């Protein structure tokens, strides 16, 4: 799954990768991004609108859903294209969530040890996500997950769907709506591009948000 991540790359670094105009505003570095908060995404607000760096609420509930409908933060790649709850957004409202890495927890000696997973070259990672207008009119998003690959499988059985560079443009293309076509042109980041290390248990508390959270520590620290 993906339930916590960090984004501390500056905005020019992100917009340059997608060929977007340089935005005038700055992003506040965040080292402990939790569900139920606004997260940075790249999306088309409408099919005919240009790409923008925007924010969506990390919690997905379509505007047509009932009041007590679930509000997931993740959706599995196995079901996102066919589930009635997600398939409309999968076809028409795909977006990217930039992260510098994400956290997972592994049981070590009866305790949960947090780990930080990121690219070996420390470049930003682009996670596949979808969004929909929520009942309150605000956009809400969900990050897609897949079975864990490579070193990520040593920490958790699932991982966020991280995309390779050539897949970013087709993933964001609102005119690509066919599931089979998307499978042909969208590919995940190679598993050997990732690495991980143990980090402080301070990350367990969402209000802790400082650069030291992503620094390596001895397990159990």
Automatic annotation (TrEMBL):
GO MF: lyase activity; peptidase activity; single-stranded DNA binding
Keyword Hydrolase: yes
GO process annotations (BP): protein-DNA covalent cross-linking repair; proteolysis
Organism: Halomonas cerina
E.C. numbers: 3.4.-.-
Record's protein name: Abasic site processing protein
Pfam family, one: SRAP
Cell membrane found in the keyword field: no
UniProt family annotation: Belongs to the SOS response-associated peptidase family.
Keywords carried by this UniProt record: Covalent protein-DNA linkage, DNA damage, DNA-binding, Hydrolase, Lyase, Protease
Superkingdom of the source species: Bacteria
Species classification: Bacteria, Pseudomonadati, Pseudomonadota, Gammaproteobacteria, Oceanospirillales
């Amino acid at each position: 799954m993906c339930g916590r991540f960090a984004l501390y790359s500056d905005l020019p670094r992100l917009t340059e990768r997608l060929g977007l105009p340089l935005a005038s505003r700055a992003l506040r570095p965040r080292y402990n991004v939790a569900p139920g908060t606004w997260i940075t995404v790249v999306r088309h607000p409408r099919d005919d609108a240009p790409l923008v760096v925007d924010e969506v609420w990390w919690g997905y509930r379509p505007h047509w859903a009932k009041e007590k409908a679930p509000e997931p933060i993740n959706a599995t790649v196995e079901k996102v294209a066919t589930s009635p709850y997600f398939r409309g957004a999968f076809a028409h409202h795909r977006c990217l969530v930039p992260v510098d890495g994400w956290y997972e927890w592994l049981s070590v000696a009866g305790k949960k040890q947090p780990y930080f997973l990121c690219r070996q070259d420390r470049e930003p990672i682009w996670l596949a996500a979808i969004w929909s207008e929520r009942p309150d009119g605000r956009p809400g998003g969900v990050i897609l997950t897949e079975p864990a690959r490579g070193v990520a499988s040593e920490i958790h059985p699932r991982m966020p769907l991280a995309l390779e560079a050539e897949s970013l443009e087709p993933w964001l293309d609102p005119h690509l709506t066919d599931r089979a076509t998307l499978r042909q042109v969208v590919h995940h980041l190679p598993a050997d591009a990732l690495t991980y290390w143990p980090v402080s248990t301070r990350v367990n508390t969402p209000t802790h948000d400082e650069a030291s959270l992503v620094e390596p520590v001895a397990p159990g620290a």
